[in-house]
Specification:
Elements (H helix, E strand, L loop, with lengths): L6 E9 L3 H15 L3 E13 L5 E12 L1
Antiparallel strand pairs: 1-3, 2-3
Length: about 70
């Protein structure tokens, strides 16, 4: 049986578009510097709304696992 040891890094990201954009941009930019990126886990998500109650920014905290 083979076993793998994974390291994890926590990354925080802000997007003005949507949560999916924040997650995709985080994993795409992290994979340029972190080799063997294997998984991601959204730890926390939050946002900010304007006076008219429309969302203006989306924040996520993501845990990235790599070998």
């Amino acid at each position: 049986m083979t076993s793998h040891i994974y390291l994890a890094a926590e990354v925080h990201r802000l997007s003005l578009l949507c949560m999916n954009d924040a997650i995709r941009y985080t994993t795409a930019s992290a994979s340029q510097t972190i080799h063997y990126l294997k998984w991601c886990e959204v730890i926390k998500s939050s946002g900010h709304s304007e006076r008219d109650h429309s969302p203006s920014e989306f924040r996520i905290n993501v845990k990235l696992g790599f070998r």
